[in-house]
Protein 1
Amino acid sequence: MPRWGKRKDNDDTAKGSGHSDDETHPRKAAKKGSEDTDTITVCEISKNRKVSVRSWQGKIMVDIREFNTKDGKEMPGKKGISLTLDQWNTLKDHVTEIDKAVAENE
């Protein structure tokens, strides 16, 4: 009976195997908490959505994000977007066009 999927055997000479079992694997860096960044909440768009400005890796970002409450703490969720200052300025420059398109579709 044929086997489907990747071949799983302990032979180090098999294709795709480039390490032995006793090698150490690199660990992922620990995530830094929100206390490591300077975040200024500008406004709340709705109950769970906020606009904030923060510094991340030395860059100023405009962050539009959903927040979830877990154990009484408000935590940022995956759903959202962080814009660089160049992207934010491009968006600001097109606000009139966006408003016009919204009005045409109402």
Note: The radius of gyration is 23 Å.
Protein 2
Amino acid sequence: MEEPSRITPINKYALACALLASTNSILLGYDIGVMSGAVLFIKDSLKISSTQVEILVGSLNVCSLIGSFASGRTSDWIGRRYTIVLAGATFFIGALLMGFATNFAFLMAGRVVAGIGVGYSLMIAPVYTAELSPAMTRGLLTALPEVFITMGILLGYVVNYALSGLPAAINWRLMVGLAAVPAVGIAAGVMFMPESPRWLVMKGRIGNAKEVLMKTSECEEEAHLRLEEITKSALDDMGVTCHPRDDTFRGQGVWRELVRPSPPLRRILIAAIGINFFMQASGNDAVVYYTPEVFKAAGIRHRKQLFGVTIIMGLAKTSCVLVSAFFLDRFGRRPLLLLGSVGMAISLAGLGLGSRFLEHLDHKPAWAIGLCVVAVCADVSFFSIGLGPITWVYTSEIFPMRLRAQGSSLAVSVNRLVSGVVSMTFLTISNEITFGGMFFMLSGVMVAATVFFYFFIPETKGKSLEEIGAIFERKDTEGSKIHYGFNNA
């Protein structure tokens, strides 16, 4: 497919569908942002220990592993659209349980249910958007879930700031319970969305798929070409010579291929699992969750000030993810990914230096506190330029059609597992080696991530989902210096 000579217009119908699907992700972002402040009041109100705080915070990520793992087969069975509805409904129940919790066990039950909903949402929104979007604007549209996660984080910070003056027994309940409100609207809005055309083709509903492609393409000719390409790919993937019946494909046999992959699929799995692993091993979720703790250690004591600083961080993060989303289809995935990982490594090293300096001082100088604030903002900003949006885009676009949902669910499950482990051990490890030591360690992780991205992540910009598979058929990608490191082609 040739590169366009002009800026590709965004199909308005595809944009509207992508926006609706991606709004589900605002629920995860809101939880991350609001929980960073709510735990301060929960700890006082329910009299829980620091270990219980870690379990409370990290449990959502660990439990989202269940939803992520199940979402692939679920979406192959009932469709992408209804899986998004299921995600919103599950999170709604979890938010209500958390808001009405009377003790730690009740609160944990809500976190478990909300976590399952988050797991479903994280996998299905990018997959649905990638399958619906035209190739030349897929980067922007598939990055929207991360945009909404970031906006949700900022919204959570604002709610923390606004409700922090209320009594401690009430404010945290409102903070976590308010997530139920958008969940209802999101689930209702998704009902007006079309189904993924690629899922429809796999189910043998060619006419329905053509109707969706006509709306998401610029002209009838483009819709026909996309339908022809999708249909051919589906027939090849499923090993059949005629259009499948409605009951032909329900995701059966996919895990067998993922467990015993061919060399090209092995390269895809390494790329998808690797980028998801490093997304969370970077410690970004933990840094966001525990930002108030980090800033308290840096010398910012007043809770109103703590929440005010987190709003600044949220604004920086939101601005950068919007910039990344709009430039993904122009500059490509690799350059922004490498820029983000290098920037995170430098920012985390700077944060480590600032934290180690402040650890040895009783009087905290303003310039050192300012350095830590700038370093944290830089870290989350570079994450939002690179790993944040690109992980979801890349994971949703590199798997073959028949394997996409369950392959993505496997990669996102690794993402959630690592996120949970990091979130649940961040404070414990930091207490042993100090925040400064923790940030130096995370900086080293990002150096390793940069090396991995350079050698194992090929460019996919401007390619249709069906063309991307050919990239992984070769050891070396044309026009780049990527070496996959496999002896068999």
Note: The chain is about 75% helix and 0% strand.
Protein 3
Amino acid sequence: MALLESRTLNLIFKYVDDHVQNYIDLLKEAVSIKSVSCSPHLRDDCVTMVKWLLCKLKSLGVEAEECDIGTQTLPDGRPLRLPPVILGSLGNDPSKPTVCVYGHIDVQPAAKEDGWNTDPFHLTEIDGKLYGRGASDDKGPVLCWLNAIQAYQKQELPIPVNLKFVFEAMEESGSEGLEALLKQRKESFFHDVDYVCISDNYWLGKNKPCLTYGLRGLCYFFVEVTCASKDLHSGVYGGTVNEAMSDMVYLLSRLVDKDGTILIPNINNDVLPITDDERRQYQEIDFSVLDYKTELGSPSLLHKEDKTKLLMSRWRFPSLSIHGMEGCFSDPGTKTVIPRKVVGKFSIRIVPNQDPVVVERAVSEYLTKEWAKRGSWNKFKVSMVHGAKAWVTDPKCSNYEAAIRATKRVYNTAPDMTREGGSIPITLTFQEVTDKSVILIPIGACDDGAHSQNEKLDRRNYIQGTKLLAAYLYEIAKMGKN
């Protein structure tokens, strides 16, 4: 049996190694489509991306459909049709387990003038790094699934599991419309799913693979202060009005201190306590504080640069970040204006068992009290514009056991078990809809620069990632139906 297993995966791995350039060419095609979901003028490109992927799936024998999820309303009130979601199936053998795969094919905005060294929509390889918007987030990992399936088929080996696919083109804009579709199809499309796998995050470092069992949630807030009906000349009106900008600076300064401590009372009440076993796991994780600090280009880090405290602060404790301000002057040069209204924007990354509703109430009550202390006669408003719960699961289950075995086969090392500081809200929805284990298997490395300039995916990670997902399917088949 062991000899047969080794032969099967060796054939898969050899095929992958022999077709590296084909995979890179495929990724180049995908990157060239400007599927920027937050830009209304590029919505047609998102639809083109969906149809491109649909064609590739059908060429592999996947039975796939484009699911209409309706329209969204733009800030100016215009309706805009959402790109369809792909639901696909490959195989229906009742004796095999069924794995549901999720990924997204939309990307963040990018332009050469933003500071890219290469054209962001033309995949460019430099020193083994594949530069291009979406290469790592998330077109490359999505294509790893297709590459793995093709390898099985070309080697005339049976795909060891049944597969279901969910691919969307709105993840970078909040996955609008997807949750409703998943819940609608709970008793039909998802009724026989045994495992769920997502590849939309990253290794903790550059060299060691990991598996992810938790994500923070997100509560995003707007706080508004209005002082006049129009912008004012500071030379004419300065000294006679209670300026909105001054009030805003005061309010934002009351949210978090210099050590990163959130100043909102009782905000940590529902955070799950740390167990001794969990603390040991953090101590064993391969993480270089020096490398992390160098990567950030920061002279110093919080928590006295203690590895365990840094990781816990990234993953399993809430954090508050101030993101920016709308309405004030921010262009180069000078402008002596008193803005009539400013909108401050901040978010709290929440963790189990924090609830967005409870967090919203705590933030609103606190800022309202701080506003009263300020004593300003200006108009004040705070609102939560987005709230998503955190997700965490038990990694001691067959889904993770299969992924650990697959990682050892490909990388010859056991993966670190990690959580992630970012949010993929749809992860929790998949868990609720299927009532099955969800795993995150990262393909890219920590320095891939997703959402940033010069996003890349290492050639090694792309190719080994294809092998990893192929091996995962092989190992999950041995776990059986769940």
Note: Residues 459-479 form the longest helix (21 residues).
